[in-house]
Amino acid sequence: MTLSQDERELLRRITDAGQPVAMSDFFHDMYPPNFPVSAPEEDPDRVAWQEQQFGMYQASIKLWEAELVHVVHPANGERPDLVEPTEAGRTALA
Fold first, then answer.
1. Who's near 72: CB < 8 A, 6+ residues apart?
2. Distance (Å, rounded) from C-alpha 64 to C-alpha 46?
3. Among 32, 39, 77, 84, which is least packed by CB within 10 angstroms?
């Protein structure tokens, strides 16, 4: 499987964490907001950032569908799923 740049970077961060993590914890680190909080909803920078965030959710779904990560602790209403890389996920980074 060929990983996109975002999928590869997200998988690397999950692997480097060394413990179960929420994939979404890395989204803002990878793509920090680059607009003022007061920016209107239609601000081009805000819209572009939102699209990046949606792309990160798609990347996380693809990692799970490809069985490169597995859920260790399912979401419980207080926190999202916590995942770890699978052996296949570690191999994909090699």
1. 20, 82, 83, 84
2. 27
3. 77
Token pair in block for residue 62:
């693809």
Residue pair 63/69 in contact (Cβ under 8 Å)? The answer is: yes
List average pLDDT for each run of 10 residues in the chain, which is 94 residues long.
Answer: 94 97 96 94 96 97 97 96 98 95
**CB distance 88 to 68 below 8 Å:** yes
Dist. CA 76–CA 66, nearest whole Å: 23
Buried b (16+ CB within 10 A) or exposed e, 3-16: beebbebbbbebbe
